[in-house]
Amino acid sequence: MDYKSRYEAWLNNDYFSAEFREELKALEGNEKEIEERFYKDMEFGTGGMRGIIGAGTNRMNEYVIRKASQGFANFAQNRYENNSIVIAYDCRHKSPEFALETALVFAGNGIKAYLFESLHSTPELSYAVRELKASVGVVVTASHNPPAYNGFKVYGDDGCQLLPVDADKVVEEVNKIESFDEVKYISKEEAVEKGLLVYLDDIQDNKYLDMVESEAIDSEIIADVEDLKIVYTALHGTGARPIQEIMKRRGLKHFYPVEEQMVPDADFSTLESPNPEDVSAFEYGIKLAKEKDADVVIATDPDCDRVGLVVKTKNGYEALNGNQTGVLLVDYVLGNIKEMPENPLLVNTIVTSGMAEKVIKSYGAELESTLTGFKFIGEKIKQYEDGSKNFLFGYEESYGYLAGTHVRDKDAVIATMLVVEMVAMYKKQGLTLVDVLEKLYEKVGYYQESLTSIVLEGKEGLEKIKRIMSSLRTNPIQTVTGLEVSAVMDCLNQTITDKNGKKDNGLPSSNVLKYYLEDGSWFAARPSGTEPKLKIYFSVADETRVACLEKLAKVEKEILEIVNSVE
Fold this sequence. Notes:
Blueprint: H1 3-11, H2 18-25, H3 31-38, E1 44-45, E2 48-52, H4 62-79, E3 84-89, H5 95-108, E4 112-116, H6 122-131, E5 136-140, E6 149-155, H7 164-176, H8 188-193, E7 197-200, H9 202-214, H10 221-224, E8 229-233, H11 240-249, E9 254-257, H12 283-292, E10 296-300, E11 307-313, E12 316-320, H13 322-336, E13 344-349, H14 355-362, E14 366-370, H15 374-383, E15 390-396, E16 400-403, H16 412-428, H17 433-444, E17 446-455, H18 458-474, E18 479-480, E19 483-490, E20 495-498, E21 501-504, E22 513-517, E23 522-527, E24 533-542, H19 545-564
Parallel strand pairs: 3-4, 3-5, 4-7, 8-9, 8-10, 13-14, 13-15
Antiparallel strand pairs: 1-2, 2-6, 5-6, 10-11, 11-12, 15-16, 17-24, 18-19, 19-20, 19-22, 20-21, 22-23, 23-24
Helix pairs in contact: 1-3, 4-5, 4-7, 9-11, 13-14
């Protein structure tokens, strides 16, 4: 069925509400917009299903949610016995409604749905799935995307986002549903009466916060440093309540929340972008930090799984990137853990800076690298539950960190607690995080990283991303700024090719290309699984910071010229 036929079918289907059909009717004559909304179904990417809110098969709306929920319920019933689901949601437009729709479809299938009664974070959902022994979970969130977006992240019984092999099975089940008449759905009143809809309250929150406290490296340091000053912003999201509470529990004496951004706001009206990777998100926080002479500004994204830092230095406030924060946390955890377990393991991703590996090896620990997507880090935790290796810490360059194994997704509450511990410890020594980072550079060498995201929206944008990735494969780059390419890893074909030939890269298939240069630098390209973007990662190493910055600028310029030349 082509996009126009799909549009007509939805427009004339009285299953949909009158308001919904009016939105569709208003599109008449706008062929491009109709095509964008109906040329495909909403797809699962690295972070589940995510897209613009609106009417259409390629939009987030209650009917797409119902169909996805029915497919997910069918998957669960095929996979597990004694099924139940935990559902959380964030501050976005339609999040409470989409969460309830999900619950009522599962209830319609006779599956008990545990629904948080207010907005809650992604990591707490992951923890609750495990603690309640549920078979599956859902978070309704679009993470750090713009206000027009919402999403549907799906989890298995281990509290980890579904791996591609299982996400594909969910998609298969969704695609089998030919009519909305196949979606089982009951009212909220009936679901509550039958005990199939159960609301989660503060008891579950307190269990989660107890767990977070148990992941402390130094349980006294925060309370001990009298003049420690922390500014925090939730960027209008779910982090406000748990992070304020954990700082209170840990005895932080000077905690300054950015009040304007501690309240839920689906429009993110104080922000250009609700993303801690974007320095502009810290505008309010830095202003407050200057007033209070704070040591660090901490920001978490709307579903509180990512965390970013801006640190006070001798010259003002400086933002750290995800790689820098990650390596600082790695060093803090490994250098201060009370008892190092046998076979300690840390996990990051293939687009993360190589600096961490040197730091990790200096402590005698092991590093494994996975594909992008925290579910692959969660997979590693599960793989070693037999005790052959002991997971300590995992992180992505995209500002996601996790200590311990109680949660199987990135957790900005745990990470924030550890950051504050780390800041406190170094403050006692008269050091800032930037000072410590410089010491690490002196120890293992200088590294600089960057990420360029090329936004290519809609059907045309998707096709251009495909052409760029195809060009990078079929016309392989031989040299960059005079440096020879020493190896190419093509994750789609699961290979790595160097002067000795081609071999298996040991990773699942994924549309990622990584070029290694002869001096240890590298760049990688991949389509985003959650946004209409092509992401290009750069990492360079050299003997000084200045040399790194100069090399990075040259490598970026040359690669982006190649990418932008693709028609």
